[in-house]
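Worked example

This section walks through a single chain of length 245. The input is the sequence exactly as stored; nothing has been trimmed or padded.
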Amino acid sequence: MTQGYAVATVEYRLVQEALWPAQLIDGKAAIRYLRANADKLNLDPERFAVWGNSAGGTVTQLLAVTGDREEYDDLSVGVKASSKVQCALAWYTISELCSAEQFGVDIEDIRTRTGAGKGMMPGDGVGTSSLFTMLLGYNPIQYPEKTCRVSPICQVREDCPSMLLEHGTDDLIIDHHQSIYMYEKVKAVCGEDRVELELFEGEPHGSQKIKDNENISRCIDLHLYNGKNPYRKELGKIRIIGEEE
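Given that input, the structure is written out below as tokens.
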């Protein structure tokens, strides 16, 4: 907490372990646990932020836009508390699952080189083995109304918390227009002061420029301390066990 933040890493069940909405339920259960134990853990229950990238960014966005809506949670899992957050940071992520089936470049060697999962390239949506079909248990293109329920962009309401979206324009795994569309939706529903979009020209999925320490520090300070974190100090060198002094 030397930089003014307490950080919790939240694990959620992957597609190989459970169908949607298990991933969202796991995220909400973690937030409820942390808020219920805020005094014990020395946390401010009124200043919770969520942050995720790629697939985790989709969960992040849904945590932000669904708040305490019970139809998006399973209150039998974990402790009773609010799962609302006060801000969200999502990097190179999916906001709308139907069109995500059609984004990208349909070239096999690019899929292999970038690690793009099935479901991210044109034509994947017509089969039964795309990544999204595996996650949802149905083909999202064939059931658009059901898919709206799991698409963050479809759930934006006026009480949406502050959001920061970042995406590289050369992302071949998740098209950067996904973040543009989410930005436009939040801005239309909540106003320009509620959302910020930063596009990184020429950067790929998982961009090291997006993930460097300078950008990380700026992101969280901007949205939790209005850019003026009184606890911020120079980051120390990470000590690796076994490394020579």
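What to look for: The first helix runs from residue 22 to 36.
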